[in-house]
Design goal:
The protein contains five helices and seven strands, in the order βαβαββααβββα. Helix content is 29%, strand content 30%. Helix 1 crosses helix 2 and helix 1 packs across helix 5. It has a single domain, classed as Rossmann fold (3-Layer(aba) Sandwich), CATH 3.40.50.300. It is an alpha/beta fold.
């Protein structure tokens, strides 16, 4: 399987939003973005910027308590999963993750909770804290043709 990797510094939230916008333009149903990083690294913030870049004007809360939130966009349905509270990977099936993989743009926070269930073609995006409160470091790896396309968008023109 082909992989494409890259990374960049995100000096502030504006840079994080810009990275999310680059990715948003190429997303389509069936794409999976796995967001990893420690607590407070900015996974939900990135997902929020991405969903807003897809045209969602309403508030984009964290799905921590609901586990999954759905959004309708011009590019297709977005399903935003937060799997932090999952006790067992099999619980993801009950959340409809299999259907989401086939029909929606899928954002997953804490994907390591279901590592064995993740599709082979995806984008893994890791966020880590930077030098100050709003700075981050982003590193990505795109797997397969879909992941390659998404990773290329993050790398920029």
């Amino acid at each position: 399987m082909t992989t494409v990797t890259g990374d960049c510094a995100l000096d502030d939230q504006a840079a994080t939003a810009a990275l999310a916008r680059r990715l948003a333009v190429v997303l389509r149903p069936g794409d999976v973005v796995a967001l990893t990083g420690p607590l407070g690294a900015g996974k939900t913030t990135f997902a929020r910027f991405l969903i807003q870049a897809l045209g969602v004007a309403e508030e984009v809360p964290s799905p921590t308590f609901n586990l999954v939130l759905d959004y309708d966009t011009a590019q297709g349905e977005v399903r935003h999963f937060d799997l932090f509270r999952l006790a067992d990977a099999d619980e993801a099936w009950e959340l409809g993750i299999e259907d989401a993989f086939a029909e929606a743009i899928v954002l997953i926070e804490w994907p390591e909770r279901i590592a064995g269930l993740l599709p082979g073609e995806r984008l893994d995006l890791t966020l880590t804290p930077g030098a100050d409160e709003t700075a981050r470091r982003a590193a990505w790896c795109g797997y397969g043709a879909r992941g390659e396309r998404l990773a290329a968008a993050l790398a920029g023109p």
